[in-house]
Amino acid sequence: MSNVIAGDAGFGSFFRYHGWLSPGVRLFRRLNFPAKAGWIAVMFLIPLTIMLGDLWKASNDQVEFARSELLGVAYVQPLHDLIQVAQGRRLAAMDGASDLDTWKTKVSDAFAKLAEQNKANGQTLGTGRAYAAVETAHQALLNAPVGADPTATFNAHSAYIALLLELGREVADTSQLALDPELDTFHLMNYAVLFGPQQTDNVSKLTALGKLVLKTGSKTADQNEDLVMFAGVLAFVDGIVENSYLKAVAAEGLKDPDAKYGMAQNDQLYDDFGKALKTMVLGEKVEGDPNQLEQMGTASARAEHALNTKLMERLRSRLEERVGQMQAQFLQQLGIAVLFVALAFYMLLAFYKVMMGGLREVTGHLEQISQGNLITAPTPWGKDEAAHLMITLRDMEASLRVIVRDTLDGAANVNTASEEIASASQDLSRRTEASAAALEETAATMTQIAETVQRTSDTVSGAADIVRANARSAQHGGEVISQVEQTMQGINASSSKISEIISVIDGIAFQTNILALNAAVEAARAGEQGRGFAVVASEVRSLAGRSAEAAKEIKTLINASIEQVEKGTQVVGEAGTAIADIVGNAGRIDSLMTEIANATKEQSAGVGQVGAAVHDLDQNTQQNAALVEETAAAATALSDQAERLAQVVSFFKLK
What we know:
The structure is a single chain. The chain folds into three domains: 1-30, no CATH class; 51-340, no CATH class; 386-649, Methyl-accepting chemotaxis protein (Helix Hairpins, Orthogonal Bundle). The chain starts with a helix and ends in a 6-residue tail after the last helix. 24% of the residues are buried. The radius of gyration is 75 Å and the shape is elongated. It has helices at 2-14, 22-29, 33-95, 100-125, 128-143, 150-174, 183-216, 221-252, 257-261, 263-282, 290-370, 385-526, 531-649. It is an all-alpha fold and 655 residues long. Residues 1-9 have low confidence and may be disordered. The longest helix has 142 residues, at 385-526.
């Protein structure tokens, strides 16, 4: 597990600083600048070479494609000539004409040209099987151009011409004419190679078969079927060739294409032949001049063949132009590529010269600096990275001169300061020794003071204990006085209640006296009957008067007692207040004594700390004396090192 972790850590550290650029960075760190430039040039040359190779291959393939089409055109031209004379031989053989031998000679000459073309390009175009079939049929017709009857002759010659047309289609495929990539040349090929010869043969077959029917004055069912089929194919193919002609000529951009190709005359001859064929042969009645139909058909076929020849020549010319254009385009692209490659090499060489020159200049100045020469000042040319580097180097030399100058001055100052430090250190050493002796005496004095403060602290602690006891007694007296005050307040309250009761009794005696008076008045009114009741009322009145007097006397005593009790309560309250003040003062005295005791303890501890500090200061002073001596020695050594530093820095030349 640890090995895996270590491996991952090592792999991660490889990409730690530069990420995905790490392999290239590590490679270039091992190479000098020429090797780096070489690697970069190779990296650019490889894809450039591949692209140039692909460009050459694509251009060459296009040129070879067009050249293959030109081979097909060269092969088809004698083939079409052979088809034309074969059509004439067919008509002569069906008529048993006297000029049949002449047509045979024309066919033999035309076939010889085709054979020569096949010998030159047949293997390239792959026409072996189709040409062999044509050659076999050709030999058979040379030996027996006329069949058992005109129909057999027509079929034999038509089959031979069909083989020639098939050979033309085979050449169109193998030469890639049928795959022409441009619109105008495709339609030129479509007309001149494929459908134009077929249209010519349709006209020729209708002419020969129509003439045969007109000569016999009737047509068989097979002949009628063939005539209808050939006429239908003729109309169908006519639409195809018309479309191809219009698009091919439109691409050429001629103002008057008829003047060059004569398509209008060709259409007129074609229409005239079609009308004559429809009137003479294709109707219900077969009637008309066979020679007239032959003339009209032959004229239309020749015009069609002439148009095919012109379009074939136009096709050949366009293919040659395309080959020339593609070759010129390739040479232009190649020239541009070579030019820019040469410019790239030129720029790379210039870049190499600039970088190497700048690096050599920087290296030379760095060598001068390593030898202590700070007088030189790089003067860069331009504003590239090497120039910036030299500017930075110049600034660095200026900074180094300042540093060296300051170092020399600093060394001199250090030397002077070290001598002064050494002298001052010796004076300080003597004074430190004197301070150490004084501190020893001070330490002894502080010890005595500490003992005195300790005794004072103990005395204050005892006094504080006595004050605390007095405070507690005063607090207890205060509590007793408080209880007496509460008792006096109770007596005062009871006296007040008794006074209120006596007041009630006095009120009752007064009311009883009034009642007795009223009773005496009523007894007087009663006369003798109320005399006894009057006596009783008189006694009651006498008792009520004495009771009222007694109540007044008691009330007077009670009021006097209440006044005395209130005075006693007031005196007790004042005594309680005095006791409370005594208790509060005792508490404050206790707090002050406690603070004094604590302060005395703190003073004792502080004096002890001062004594310890003085003792430590004494030791430190003794150590400082030793350090001062060491400082003096170090200052002397520093002065020596400053002199050596000045000697070392003097290696650099500033003027």
